[in-house]
Amino acid sequence: MANDMPREFSARLGTVESELRALWLQAQAGDEAAYRDVLGRIARLLRAYLRRRMAGWQDDVEDLVQECLLALHLQRASYDPAQPLSAWVYAISRHKLIDFWRRNRRYGALNDSIDDVDELLLAGEAIEPMSHVDLARLLSLLPEAQRRAIELTKLEGLSVAEAAARIGMTEGAIRVQVHRGLKRLSLLVKVVI
Amino acid sequence: MKTKDFIDFLATDAGPAPAFNVSLKFRTALLAGLAASLGIGMMANGNASPAILWVVRWYKVAYALSILACGWFMVTQLARPISRIAKPLWALALVVLVMAGFGVSTWVAAPADQVSALFLGQTWQVCSLLILAFSLPALAAALWALRTLAPTRLRLAGFAAGIFAGAQGALGYAVICPEESFLFVAVWYTLGIALSALLGMLLGPKVLRW
């Protein structure tokens, strides 16, 4: 698997991989700061990876970066610590990229030349790009219980325990609602953007 | 929305990663698939006693179980983004080849006037299709299990689910199968399982997207 990995992932694989993996394992264990950090690093890798493969669709790159991040989050249980993290990230991102082309009926685009990508785009990291994702609008499309659980824990900054006390649910039920809500968001993102 | 804000949104209160229990999901699917397939077989036989299993030809059971094992290792691997399936795939090829070898040796050893009886039996027209039919509940269960996990090679995952389910179908069908030749099993059982695999391959990219 590592042999056919794209260069954004395999370049400097040794150091990048060991740093990312260490952070990721901390995040898996529940370390929120490590999770923020590692998702940020992965986002940069993803941006470079997707920009090269979405020539002519640069406007959609950031949407897909976020879609991939959401997919990584939802499927983070599927990471096996015995495997390289970058290979796992790449497998999921590739899956999402193929899904993107399928939605946009541009199968051939997978084979587009990468020469027309402006190299400056690849290098530039000055401005944090924006996606078309409108979180407030997406959330408004969720069922009430899922939306409330997500708003309380993820936007208002309550802990899961506080949120559970606020709406009279168990902590487990809150987590289930959040997970279901995010899962539904990942479907809505495809339709709405 | 800025990606940094989106990451904040994802990470806040994320908690530890949940467990990813592949084998539990597929054990459940296997239980459901086998219950359905053996259940149909015993009902069709009009004999609900498990004792019926003892008269089933051993090579049919051995063939189905070997393929079932290969299917298990493939499908549980393909339920994850990174999967290694070379070994079970080779094992599957080996199992099919060994059975084909038994089939051919039956063919070679048989008197010329009996070859077509050994090859076609009395039920060749329905055998493969019935195996496919017997495997449908198992296929549905295996695809359900995959849907709750994270396959990224959808066609292959569908194929593996089809092999896994086809072997369960063959096991149930063996209960009512009247044929008694290696050659028959090597051809028509294999075809039935292959049909299930083909169906899985066609369904995979459609039903396993996430």
Automatic annotation (TrEMBL), chain A:
Alphabetic keyword roster: DNA-binding, Sigma factor, Transcription, Transcription regulation
TM spans (from-to): none
Highest taxon listed in the record's lineage: Bacteria
Span of domain RNA polymerase sigma factor 70 region 4 type: 134-185
Residue ranges constituting the RNA polymerase sigma-70 region domain according to the UniProt record: 42-106
GO molecular function: DNA binding; sigma factor activity
Transcription among keywords: yes
Annotated Gene3D superfamilies: 1.10.1740.10, Winged helix-like DNA-binding domain superfamily/Winged helix DNA-binding domain (1.10.10.10)
GO biological process, one term: DNA-templated transcription initiation
Family: Belongs to the sigma-70 factor family. ECF subfamily.
Protein name per UniProt: RNA polymerase sigma factor
Organism per entry: Achromobacter spanius
